[in-house]
Amino acid sequence: MESRAPFGGGGALRAAPFPGRWVVPSSAKGQNARPHDGARIEHVTRRQTLLAIGGVAVVIAGIPLGWSAWTALRFPSDKTPEGCYLRIALAFSRSRVQDCFAYLETGSQHALYAIHASRKESLARIRASFEEPERTRLLEAYGPEGDAADPADCFVVMARQRGWDARLRRDLSGIRGVEVVGDRATIETAQGTRYPFRRGDDGLWGLTIFTADLVAHRDRTARDLVVVQKAAEAYDRAKAGK
After folding, report:
1. 77: pLDDT confidence band, cut at 50, 70 and 90?
2. Residue 56: beta bridge partners?
3. What is the share, in percent, of the chain residues with pLDDT greater than 90?
4. Is the pLDDT of residue 35 over 50?
5. Neighbouring-strand partners of residue 181
6. Sign of the CA dihedral with 135 first, then 139, 140, and 142 last
7. Nearest-angstrom CA–CA distance, 86 and 82
8. Residues 183 and 88 sit within 8 Å (Cβ to Cβ)
9. Do the beta carbons of residue 68 and residue 50 sit within 8 Å?
10. What is the pLDDT of residue 93?
């Protein structure tokens, strides 16, 4: 079992040097920048400036915004559990839930591909063959998943329907610790929530908390497709006999 510090051993965020100073980005060197009398000019890099902005955001907008801005600048590799978790956290903080798809474990991704395909095929058969009122009822039920642009957008639909997005926005926070055992890992957050990950054959880590629900829904949508296909055939026979 391996236990390591957050961010692959990185230390705490260093304070940027702003109180009582005029901070001028390095791009302003040679320009006629004029501070107030008695103030010092310190040339800093773009990275330092962005870190300073992130620090101010912590005070103004709260920890999630400042933390997200900082992690965007200093990510561990996505071949580490920390890197995977931080990319998920950033995606949710930016309301880009579809970006999480790449950081779900392989089983979850495959289930989403199957769900999207089954719903899409079901919708095609319903639109071609069904009559009212079943046509409208099933289009409304299957439409959000089947009409999604791709499996990643299908995940967005399911996350909203099941409250997963609200749950993760509430629970995600900074990393307190990481525990790795073989191809399994657990991220413990500053709030005490634990998130399980699994390493795939490609070496990338993926979040596993949705896999059981996604696999169960995959099987349900496959059964629904069989029912829709049989009903569509019955509708087609009835139309042909008229």
Report:
1. confident
2. none
3. 56
4. no
5. 184
6. positive
7. 6
8. no
9. no
10. 85
Strand partners, 41: 22
pLDDT band at 73 (very low <50, low <70, confident <90, very high): low
Question: Count of CB atoms within 10 A of residue 148's CB?
Answer: 21
Q: Which of 205, 3, 176, 189 is nearest to 197 (CA)?
A: 205
Pairing of strands 2-4, 205-207: unpaired
Distance, CA of 166 to CA of 159 (rounded, Å) = 8
**What is the number of residues in the chain?**
242
pTM for this structure?
0.70
Domain boundaries, the chain: 1-74, 78-242
Peptide bond into 25 cis (omega under 30): no
Look up residue 103 and give its DSSP letter: G
**Location of structure tokens 């054959």:** 201
Q: What is d(CA 238, CA 214) in angstroms, rounded to the nearest whole number?
A: 36
User: Rounded to whole angstroms, how far apart are CA atoms 43 and 237?
Assistant: 79
Residue (of 151, 152, 157) closest to 113 by Cα position: 151
Tokens at residue 239, please? 């139309």
Q: Are strands 205-207 and 194-199 parallel, antiparallel or unpaired?
A: antiparallel
How would DSSP label each residue in 147-211? TSSSHHHHHHHHHHHHTHHHHHHHH---EEEEEEETTEEEEEETTS-EEEEEE-TTS-EEE-TTH
Model confidence band, residue 154 (pLDDT cutoffs 50, 70, 90): very high
